[in-house]
Each structure stands twice: as C-alpha cells, then as structure tokens.
Amino acid sequence: MIEVDLYNRIREMNVVEGLSQREVARRLGISRNTVRKYWDGGVIPGACKPRKRDPVVMTEDVISAIKRVSMRTCFPFLTRLCGLCTIATTAR
C-alpha cells in the first residue's frame, strides 16, 4: 500500500499534468500496476474494503447446537448451585 502523499501525486500527474500512466510510473519510480490501481481515484490508500459476509450467522443449526451444549453444561451446574433436585429432562 502506498502513502497518501504518493497517491495525491499520482492523481495530480494524471489530472493536472495529463501524463500517461507509464510516464507517472517512470517519474515516481513505482510499478505501472501501482499507478493503474490509483489512477482514476477509485481506490484510496488505507481505506477498508466492505466485507462480503452473510449477515445471518445465527442459523437454526447454530442455535440448536448452543442450546444442546448449554443444557448439557449449565443444567447440572444450576441444580447443584440452587439445590434443585435433578430431574430427567428431554433436553439432555
């Protein structure tokens, strides 16, 4: 990734001076690929890309797995803690 100063210089050489990508790369001593990446201002150095995630992480499978684990580990603990008698449950 490049510094903002170099990014601004690439944009200036493009818009103001009207130089080619090849000439900008030569003058700045950087790769033409780097110049091309920042040439039109579509990519800004340091900016984070939006993540492509499924917003729904709590699917039915995840919820049921949490319930199974919770009931298996929490129920015995709570019965000992609260002094409740242990009852056979379907959740086990």
Helical segment count: 4
Shape type: rod-shaped
Structural class of the helices, strands and pairings?
mainly alpha
Poorly predicted segments? none
Strand content: under 5%
Radius of gyration: 29 Å
> Can you count the beta strands?
0
Order of helices and strands: HHHH
Average pLDDT score: 80
CA-CA gap between termini: 53 Å
Largest sheet: none
Helix content: 40-55%
Compact overview of the structure:
This protein has helices at residues 4-15, 21-28, 32-38, 60-82. The model has no long low-confidence stretch (mean pLDDT 80). With 92 residues, the chain is mainly alpha-helical.
Explained architecture:
This protein has helices at about 5-15, 20-30, 30-40, 60-80. By secondary structure, the protein is mainly alpha-helical. Helix 2 packs across helix 3 (about 30-40). The longest helix has 23 residues, at about 60-80. It is rod-shaped, with a radius of gyration of 29 Å.
